[in-house]
Automatic annotation (TrEMBL):
Protein name: Spermidine/putrescine ABC transporter permease
The organism's place on the tree of life at top rank: Bacteria
Organism: Bellilinea caldifistulae
ABC transmembrane type-1 domain location: 53-247
UniProt keyword Transmembrane, yes or no: yes
One Pfam assignment: BPD_transp_1
Family membership: Belongs to the binding-protein-dependent transport system permease family.
Family annotation (InterPro entries): MetI-like, MetI-like_sf
Gene Ontology biological-process entries: transmembrane transport
Protein keywords: Cell inner membrane, Cell membrane, Membrane, Transmembrane, Transmembrane helix, Transport
Length: 265
């Protein structure tokens, strides 16, 4: 029975791998056919030579970094305080953090434009205001990933004991939060940040209504509408970027586990 279960497990793993990788391999092969009759990286060369590619990529990367920083500054102290002082509110906060999965991005962006395009804010009338509004929307969009990562990290440590020990030594709340608690959940925060960055880099709906072609997501959509091989190469580049962030998360988690094992010995 055990051998039969093992064979079935391998069967479903191989089937899932084929379902995932075959379309990816087909897309990659198609992206190499920009030069007739031979395989080449011509489509990739055209993408990297396009000044809009680098401009939109850098813009979205900047927005992603600002989003991760703003999300951490908002969510980390909130989750810490709830675990320390208000554990009865955990269920409510978890529900709120999952709302971006329920509310469509199109509803969110139209609501933001409706509220912040008129008096007294007028954020959509200026370059800086629009960017601020974009980051705020992305903070909401990435909240589930940041919240879950930070909450899991805080769950793995004794928040109350660390706080009481720091207070007994005369530490203030800022010192406790950023010099005692933060180093213990650094890996969890970085993991959530990488997921947030990967989400922002490929986001289309909010970016298209707020900043248009200045962002990487709308740029990929525009290329997909006008250029066949280049759109396939962009899909591969976007996929590689996402997996690079996931690989960084795995490396950080592996380092954390090794540190914990060394500390246990």
């Amino acid at each position: 029975m055990s051998k039969r279960n093992t064979l079935w497990s391998w069967f479903w793993m191989i089937l899932g791998g084929l379902y995932f990788f075959l379309p990816l391999l087909a897309t990659f092969e198609f992206s190499l056919k920009a030069r007739k009759g031979v395989y080449s990286f011509l489509a990739y060369e055209r993408v990297f030579a396009d000044p809009l590619f680098l401009r939109t990529f850098i813009f979205s990367l900047e927005m992603a970094v600002f989003t991760a920083l703003a999300g951490i500054l908002l969510i980390f102290p909130t989750v810490y305080w709830i675990r320390l002082k208000l554990p009865q509110l955990r269920g409510l906060i978890e529900f709120v953090s999952m709302l971006p999965f329920v509310v469509p991005a199109i509803v969110l962006v139209f609501g933001l434009i409706r509220v912040f395009s008129g008096a007294p804010f007028f954020l959509t009338n200026t370059f800086t205001g629009t960017n601020v509004l974009l980051v705020a929307a992305y903070v909401v969009l990435t909240m589930p990933y940041l919240y879950r990562s930070i909450d899991t990290g805080l769950q793995a440590i004794d928040v109350r004991t660390l706080t009481e020990a720091a207070q007994s030594l005369g530490a203030g709340w800022g010192t406790i939060l950023f010099r005692v608690i933060l180093p213990n959940v650094r890996v969890s925060i970085l993991s959530g940040s990488f997921l947030a960055v990967a989400t922002v880099m490929g986001e289309f709906t909010i970016a298209s209504f707020l900043v248009g072609i200045r962002a990487f997501g709308p740029y990929m959509s525009l290329v997909g509408q006008n250029k066949t091989y280049e759109s396939s190469s962009l899909a591969i580049i976007s996929f590689a970027l996402t997996w690079a962030f996931i690989g960084l998360i795995q490396l950080l988690n592996r380092g954390r586990v090794q540190t914990q094992i060394a500390g246990a010995h």
